[in-house]
Write a structure and sequence with these properties.
The protein is of the alpha/beta class and about 525 residues long. Helix content is about 40%, strand content about 20%. The strands form 4 sheets. A 6-stranded mixed sheet has the order 5-6-7-3-8-9, with helices on both faces. Strands 15-16-17-12-18 form a 5-stranded parallel sheet, sandwiched between helices. A 4-stranded antiparallel sheet has the order 11-10-14-13. It is globular, with a radius of gyration of 31 Å.
């Protein structure tokens, strides 16, 4: 057991307007299974890099532990090498027999260590890297979003594996994973950092209670300040009115008053002015007590979506659909039957490679071809859509408008202004939605290729939300998206009930929103 002590840590990127961390202090234990929670861009990955010594900073980080980081970097040239050849670079002096002992815990065959790395699926790559990561001794491990792009089966296996380990920081936005794995959380709030025992759900319950108390106290202070200001203003006006009568009087109208009354009025005015000053002090005290109450409150603004209503109730119909690529020998999808009706939120689930994205591509291509760009009857005469051959029925409602989120963000280039023009978006409204998704204004001046993956995903989500459509098709929209934004999107879908076809492996998201699940 050892401690990682962070004292007065201050760090900011060169050219940035604000520091990422400002005089931050906290301690964590290297035996903990620590979940790392925070908004996109708050500094989670930055902090991991500071632990690794990659950046210069002010303050101190002290620990006797050695750090190792997931995921390991694999260059394009290294993809032809096997994990067995790469692991020495990843974790110097690692012993292969230790890695082979870890693999069965992840339900991985040792044979994967000797295959070219490029032939492994996302899930297989993650599991092999985790096996190497946990093959050392006395390392404190920094695990950065291990479940992105993983199917449900792989996520469950990674969750089970990590639950049996200790001594790591886990950066993740997957609430189910954080609940199943962590015994402590490290939270980057808006203005503070806190360390708390428990998992995500226990922290969130405490946070909601704390936020509710802060709102109630804030309202109480606002009412008290308003009352004090009104009383102070009234007393001030009385004092001014009294003071104005101190000099000069009409002896006929005010026959009971003499020149000696002046001192009495002066004393009375002074007493009233003293009361005003006391009220002002109390106002300052109330304002001081109010300050900081809402500093960590998540200002989650409800988003809006603009779904269109179609005159057909059924938007997609699949009957005994089979699909394979023209250059392939086996079907990607076999005998699939389902439909999507207006108002439904249909989730496609299944292992990676089962054909979810291929089905979406077929739907998008057929809708595009049916929009007058090509002759759809001729296109389907020999059962071919794009480079896929289909059998069975795939029918779409005519004149269907689809808003699509691709799981790939590599096509995002240039400025947000350029992106808005290409997609016919109202630029001001586009920026407003990005702000509601907590994208900092400083990002608005950057090119999108410099954005983090989470920030790129928010660009795609904002684009989709601003696109009026009959059907929203989202392919893994939540990869890299922070927990708070996920909750915003959940509330949005619950409120507006757009018709959706979704591929998403976040268990909580699916359980809350799915009206139907189609397992491939």
């Amino acid at each position: 057991m050892a401690q990682i002590n962070v004292s007065n840590l201050t760090f900011g990127y060169e050219g940035s307007f604000e520091n990422v961390f400002e005089n931050v202090s906290f301690s964590v234990d290297t035996d903990w299974k620590l979940g790392f929670i925070g908004r996109n861009g708050k500094g989670k990955t930055t902090f991991l890099n500071l632990l690794l010594g990659k950046y210069d900073y002010q303050g101190s980080i002290t620990s006797s532990a050695a750090f190792d980081y997931f995921p390991y970097v694999v260059s394009g040239k290294e993809l032809d090498l096997s994990a067995s050849e790469l692991m020495e670079k990843w974790k110097p002096q690692v012993e292969e027999w230790r890695v082979m002992c870890e693999l069965p815990l992840l339900s991985v065959d040792a044979e994967l260590l000797y295959r070219p790395f490029k032939t492994l699926s996302f899930g297989e790559r993650t599991k092999v890297m985790l096996a190497v990561l946990f093959s050392g001794e006395n390392d404190f491990l920094l695990i950065d979003e291990p479940t992105n792009h993983l199917d449900m089966e792989a996520r469950d296996k990674v969750k089970e594996y990590l639950a049996g380990k200790k001594g790591f920081i886990l950066v993740s936005h997957d609430r189910d994973l954080l609940d199943g794995v962590c015994d402590h959380v490290l939270v980057l709030n808006r203005s503070t950092i806190e360390v708390q025992a428990g998992n995500f759900s226990s922290w969130w319950e405490n946070k909601e209670k704390k936020d509710s108390f802060a709102r109630a106290e804030n309202e109480k202070h606002l009412r008290e300040i308003s009352k004090l200001k009104a009383t102070a203003d009234r007393s001030s006006r009385w004092a001014e009115k009294s003071e104005s009568t101190k000099i000069g009087f009409d002896p006929i109208k005010e026959n009971d008053r003499s020149i000696s009354t002046r001192s009495y009025i002066g004393a009375k005015t002074k007493k009233m002015q003293s009361r005003v000053k006391n009220f002002e002090k109390r106002i300052d005290r109330e304002i001081e007590e109010k300050e900081g109450l809402l500093q960590d409150l998540e200002k989650e603004i409800d988003l809006k979506v603009m779904p269109m209503e179609h005159y057909k109730d059924r938007l997609i119909e699949c009957r005994e659909l089979s699909l394979k690529y023209l250059d392939g020998t086996e079907n990607v999808i076999d005998d699939l039957t389902f439909e999507v009706k207006q108002g439904e939120r249909v989730f496609l689930s299944g292992a990676n490679g089962c054909g979810k994205s291929s089905l979406i591509k077929a739907i998008l291509k057929k809708n595009e071809d049916g929009d007058g760009k090509t002759d759809i009857d001729r296109s389907l005469a020999n059962n071919v859509i794009s480079n896929m051959q289909i059998t069975g029925t795939l029918s779409l409602a005519p004149n269907l408008t689809i808003s699509y989120i691709n799981q790939d963000t590599s096509h995002l280039r240039g400025t947000l202004s350029d992106h808005a023009k290409v997609n016919n978006l109202d630029y001001s409204l586009f920026l407003a939605i990005l702000r509601q998704l907590d994208l900092d204004r400083v990002q608005f001046e950057k090119n999108m290729e410099d954005f983090s993956e989470g920030q790129k995903k928010k660009v795609l989500i904002a684009t989709s939300l601003l696109t009026p459509a009959h059907l929203y098709i989202w392919d893994e929209p939540l990869n890299y998206i922070d927990v708070f934004s996920r909750m915003q999107i959940e509330r949005l879908i619950e409120r507006y009930k757009p018709t959706m076809l979704i591929v998403e492996h976040d268990v909580r998201f699916r359980e809350k929103l799915a009206s139907k699940e189609v397992v491939l």
